Amino acid sequence: MSALLETNELTVSYGGLHANSNVNIKAEKGKLTGLIGPNGAGKTTFIDAITGFTNVSSGRAEFNGNDLAGVLPSDRAKQGLVRTFQSLELFEDLTVWDNLIVMAEETKWWSFLADIVKPNRVLGIEEQAEWALNLLGLGEHRDKLTLDLSHGQRKLVSVARALAAKPSMLLLDEPAAGLDTVESQQLGKHLREILKQDISIFLIDHDMGLVLSVCDYIYVLDFGKIIAEGTPEEVRNNPEVKRAYLGETAGEMQAEGGAAAARTLSGEG
Amino acid sequence: MKEAIAYSIMGLGAGGFYALMAMGIVVAYKGSGVINFSHGAIAMYVAFQFYNLRTEGIFRLPWFDILPTSWLNIPVRFNLTDGQPMNFWLCVLLALLTSVLIGALIHYLVFKPLRNAAPLGKVIGAIGVMTYFLGVASLQFGSTIPNPEAVLFKDKLFQNFLGLGLPVSVEALALAGCAIIVGAVLWAIFRYTRTGLATRAAAGNEKGAVLLGYSPDKLALFNWVLAALLAGLAGILAGTVTGSLSTGKFTALIVPALGAALIGGMSSIPLAIGGALLIGALQTFTSTWMVGESWFPSWLQSGARDAIPLIIIVAVLFLKGKSLPIRGNIEEKRLPLAPYPKRVGKYVAIFVPLGFILAAGLPGDFLFAGLTGNWGFSFTTSLVAAMFGLSFVVLAGYVGQISLVQISLAGTAAFITARFVANEGPSDANPFAVGGPHWPWPIASLVGIIAAVLVGLIVAIPALRIRGVQLAVVTIAASISMWTLFFDNPSATKLQGGSAYEFGTPHFFGVDIGSTSSSGLTDNPKYTLFCLIVLAGLCVVVANLRRGSTGRRFLAVRANERAAASAGVNVPGTKFLAFGIASAVAGVAGVMTAYQTGSTAATNWEYGIGLSALAFCYLGGITSINGAILGGMIAGGGIVATFGSFHSPGLYSYTAIMGGLGMIATAIIHPAGQASIFQPLMRHFGSWLLVARGKEWGVVLKRLWPFLLGGGAWGAIGINPWRTDSWNRFWMIVLGIFLTLFVRNIVTQVRAAKAAKALPDTNSLQEVTA
Q: CATH topology for A1-80+167-239?
C-alpha cells in the first residue's frame, strides 16, 4: 500500500540556509506518524512546505498520490490535508462553533446569494463538528468567543477545528506545547481516538513523552535532515537521536547509562 | 526630442516639491510607523497660512473657536499688519512655527495615544487629521484660491536652457536643488546624530530600542515635528510650481508624494527624492508633450498628469508590497469585534414604519412651522449616508480591508445611471444637459450599480496581494485619481463647466416616488419611504451575509489570513467577493443620493466627502450595521446635524472638523464606535415596548380595532377634502382615529354611569389580562 503523504527529497532553502534538506517521509494511512527534533530543526518549515505556506526549493510532496506542487493552501485543505498552527491562529471574532463550521463547510461561488436569502442553512456538517467538539470536551464552550477561553482550551479548539473538516490527514504542529503532563496524556488518548475515525495523523512535537507513547512510526529531524526513523523503540535506542537531543556526551554513555537516557527521553527522568 | 527633454526638466520643479513632501512622509513613518495621509493637508494648511501672512499679515492658529459665547473666545485669528503685506522672513518664521505646533499637537493628541492601536486605528487617526485640516482650512480660508508668488528666484528664467530651445524657470530647478540639500541634511541627521540613529533603531525594532533606554515617545515627537516642518517647508517653497490650488486640490498632492515615498520603500530618503523628481518629470512630460501627440486619447488629456502617481503607487505596492518594512510594535490591539446581528426582522418591522411616520409626519407645518422640507431632506440624507456606511461595514468592518475608494464607486454608479436615464440633450432650460437613451430608471440604476461593481473589482485586484495600510494607500490614490481622470474630466463625462447630470423622477406603478414633493421641495415622504425600504433591504442583506457562511469566511479572513487559507477558505476569492458586495452597496447609495438631489455633479464625489462619510461611519461603529445607521444619523446634513442647526445656525460648516475630531477620538477611546453604547439601550427599550407589553397591546387592539380602522377611514375620506394640501393626509387619519376613540370613550363613560354596576374601562382591561 502506498503512503497517504509522501515526500521525496524535499528541500526548503531560505537564501543559503537549508531549513529542510532532502527530506523523505512516508505517512501511512490509518497510522500516527511522528516527527521530532530539537528547536530549530525545521519541523514547522516542513509542515509549512507540505501545506503550501512556504515555497519548496526542490523535491516533491505527494498527497493521496497527487503532486502538491502549485496547489493553493486552501485547496490542499479541501483535499483533506489539514493542519493546526503552533501559534493557534484561531478566528478570534467567531464563536468556537463557528470556528469549526468555517473549516467544515463547503462553499460555492454563489453561496453568498444563498446566504442573503437564508443565512442559517443546515449544512450537513453539524454532526462532524459536534463530534469534534465533544471528543475534545469543548461542548460547554460551544457558543463562547475563542478570546474568552484559556490557553489550553484554545489549543483544543485548534485541534477540533482541524478535525471538523473530516480530513484524511491531520497535521498537528506542537499540540502539546504549553500543556501540563496530565493534559498532554489526555491529548494522547484523544489522538488514538481520532485515528479510529479513519483520520491519519502526522504529529510534530518536541514532547518526547507524548510522541514516543502514541506514535506508530517516528522520524527524527535535526538541522533540516532526517537523522533517524523507526518505531518508537528503535528511535529510543538510536545513538544519533541521543546525540542530537543531549549533546555529544550522551553518545559516550554506555550500556547502563543508556537506560537512564531513555528515561530522560521518554519524559520520565 | 529636445522639447521632450526640456519639458521633463521643467517637471523637476514639481518633483522637488514632491520630494520635500515624500521626505516628510518617510520621516513620520520612521518615527512612528504611521503612513501619514494627513501630510498633504498639513502642507496645505501651512501654504495657505504663509500666503495669507504674506499678502495680508493675518496669522491663524490651527483650530476653531468652540466656545458659544461672544465675550469669551479661543484666540484663532491675529491681524498683525492691518492688512498690509508682511516681511518675508517673518512670514517664513511664523509659518514654520505653525508647522512645529502642528507636529507637536499631532504627536501628543493623536499618534501617541494610538501607538498601540490596530493598523486600521492608525490609518483612521491619520485620515481623521486630514479631514480635520480640510475642515479647518475651509472654515478659515473659505473657498479662496490663493495665487502664490514664487519664493525662490521670482520671475527668473533660463532662456533656451542647455540649448534645448525652451525657457525653464529658475524656480523649478531651485526647488529641486532645495529638495536635494534638505535630503542631504536629513540623511546626515539619521546617520550621525544620536536621535537619528535611535530613530532608525526603533523603526527596526521598537522593543530593542526601549531596552537600550530610548523613549519611543520622545523619538516619535522629534520625528513628528521634523515631518511637519518638512510639510511646512514644502508648503512655503511651493510658490508657482504647484500653481493656484483649492484646499482640496492642494491636499490631494499627497498622492504623488506617497508614490515617491513608496519608491523609497518608506525608508530610503535618496530613493524617495529620486522617485519624486522622476514623478514630477514624467507628469510634466506627459501632460505637455505626450498629450500633444496625435495617438494620445483625447478623453485622457486632462487627467493624464494625475494618472502617473496612481500607476506608480499600484506598481510599487504590487511588486514589492511584501518587502515594505512593517514595524513590530510592543503591543498591538486588534480590530473591534463585529457583533452577530440579532433581531434584524424585528428592527426592520419597527423602524421602517416608525421612520415613515417621522418622515410623513414631521415635515410640513405641523411641528416645525417655517422649516418645511428640512426634516424630510435631512432624514433621507441620513438614510442614504447609512446605506453608504454599510459598504464600509462589509469591507472594513467584516473583512478588515480599508478601502477609501467607495465614494468614487458611488459616484460611478450615479454617473453611469445618469447617462442611461437621460432623455434629451441641451434645452433652453438647461443648455448643459447631456442626452441619453432614456431607459426606465430601475434598469438604468442597475446598469450603474453593475458599473460600480466592475470598477470596484478592478480596484480590488491589487488588494489581493496587499492588505491593511497599503490598501488604504492604493485606494486613496485611486479615489483622488478617479476624480480628476473621470468625474472632473469633461471629455469623459460630457459635463461642461462643472454642470450636473439631470435625474428624472422615478415612478413606481404610476406613483411619483421622486424626492421632489408637490411643494417643490425635496421632501417627498414617498421618497423617504423608498429610501427606508432600500436601506432595510440592504441591512437584511448585510446581516444575512454576516450570519451565514459568507460572514464566517469574511471574519476568518479578517482574523487571520493564514489560518483562513489552512481552513480551506479561498482568501483572494473572499476578498474579491467582499469588494464586489461593498461596491454594489456603495453603488446603491450613490444612485439613491442622485435621486435625492435630482442631479449629480463632479463635486458630489470628491475624495474629501468620502473621507467625511468614513469618519462618521467609524464614529458610529464600522464593524456593525447599527454603526452604519448611527453614522448616517450623525453624518453631515443628516438629522442630528439638522436638529443641531436649529440651535446653532451654521453648524454645517463644522461637519468636516467634527467628523475628523470624532474619528480621532473614537479611534483612541472606543474603536468599536458609538453604536455599541446605544445597542443595549435599544434592546431593552425594544423588549419593553414589544415583548413585555405585547399581551396588553394585543388586548387593547382586540377591543379597539374596529374603531381604529373606522376612524382612520373616516379621517382619510371624511375630513381630508376640507384640507387641500396633500401633506396632511397622514395627520387626518390620526385625527380621525383620535376623534373616534374620543367619542367612543365618552359613550362608554355615559353607559357606565347609567348602569351603576358596570365596570369602568380600565378595570375590564385588567380582568381580561388576568
A: Rossmann fold (3.40.50)
